[in-house]
Amino acid sequence: MFWTRLASGIVLVIVAVLTIMAGGTIWFLLVSLLSMVGLNELYKTIHIERTAFGWIGCLTTALYCALLYANANGHFDGEPFLVVIAGFLVLCAVYVFTFPKFKANQIAFAVFGLMYVPVLMMHLYRVRELPDGLFIIPLVFLSAWGNDTCAYCVGMLIGKHKMTPKLSPKKSIEGLVGGIIGAIILGMAYGALAENHLPSLGNTVLACGVICGVGAVIAVVGDLTASAIKRDTGIKDYGKLIPGHGGVLDRFDSILFTAPIVFFLAVYFGA
Questions:
Q1: Contact at 8 Å (CB) between 110 and 48?
Q2: How many alpha carbons lie under 13 Å from residue 176 in its C-beta half-sphere?
Q3: 3-class SS of residue 143
Q4: What does each C-alpha distance from 16 to 37, 43, 223 come to in angstroms?
Q5: Which of 93, 161, 252, 269 is the most buried (most CB within 10 A)?
Q6: pLDDT by residue (tens digit) across 229-267?
Q7: Is the dihedral of CA 260, 32, 130, 194 positive or negative?
Q8: What whole-number distance in Å separates Cα of residue 51 and Cα of residue 59?
Q9: What is the number of other CB atoms lying within 10 angstroms of the CB of residue 47?
């Protein structure tokens, strides 16, 4: 299992680096694919992936991604999120006109899925499209995976007080604090190293530190959200797409939450 996890992790990193460097259409297609697969994984947890709700969710995701791409490339001046609202209205129409075929929790979950996966995930594309986006997007991964690594190390060394004993008993408050501090340090170090490539952020060291610190806090929420859904639905992993890691949502649970935070804070700092 260790070698399988390591090998697939290396492949994942290589694919991510190459597609991020390429940017544009190639990165858009990968992130869109991850959004579609992730949404399908989520819908599978309550068995709506092959229902009308599942198909509407997938179609809404495809249209949202397409309009986001068109907007970024100057071919569409409207608001892509209107497609998500339209998808919600269609889901409601199906719910009421086929009543009582679907339950309230199913339509609620279908709508939640649209916000949780494609809307959040596509911020990976939006970050890359920012000025200096090639050097801003590593902050997404530093916030999430840097925080996770630091939290694990600190938790193993001095962790005593459980953070969420019923949901994730291995996580400690000490690990939480250590992860956030570690992410801030990593962000500031990255800002110092990449200062010449991030003129849009102004005071790069400060900006990167703040972005990674806030991102780390949100990353914990993302990680625990994914865990809570798995506990509620009685599954171990969201899928088996990535050998040794599970599904897309297993690997990108915290990334889903850090990507929009990095995007909006980068814009706030001037990107």
A1: yes
A2: 19
A3: helix
A4: 16, 25, 20
A5: 252
A6: 999 999 999 988 888 788 999 999 999 999 999 999 999
A7: positive
A8: 13
A9: 11
Count each helix (H run) and each strand (E run) in the chain, helices first: 14, 2
* pLDDT computed for residue 131 by the predictor: 92
What's the rounded Cα separation, in Å, for the pair 104 and 224? 24
Rounded to 5 degrees, φ, ψ at 79 are -100, 110
Instruction: Specify the residue for token string 């990507």.
Output: 259
Three-state DSSP at 162 gives strand
Using the predicted structure, report yes or no on whether residue 2 has a pLDDT greater than 70: no
157: which residues sit within 8 A by CB, 6+ positions away? none
Considering all CA atoms of the chain, what is the largest pairwise distance in Å, rounded to the nearest integer? Answer: 60
pLDDT in tens, 65-77: 999 999 999 999 9
Residue 83 in this model has a pLDDT that exceeds 80: yes
> Whole-model pTM?
0.94
Q: Which of 41, 182, 178, 65 is nearest to 118 (CA)?
A: 65
CA–CA dist 248, 27 (Å, integer): 16
Q: How far is CA 243 from CA 6, 12, 248, in A?
A: 9, 10, 11
Mean pLDDT within 58-62: 97
Q: From CA 5, how far away is CA 192, in angstroms rounded?
A: 32
Write the single-letter amino acid at 77. D
Asked if the model's pLDDT at residue 271 lies above 80, the reply is no
Q: Terminal CA-to-CA distance of the chain, rounded, Å?
A: 41
Residue 41 pLDDT more than 90?
yes
For residue range 92-113, list pLDDT tens digits in order.
Answer: 999 999 999 999 999 999 999 9
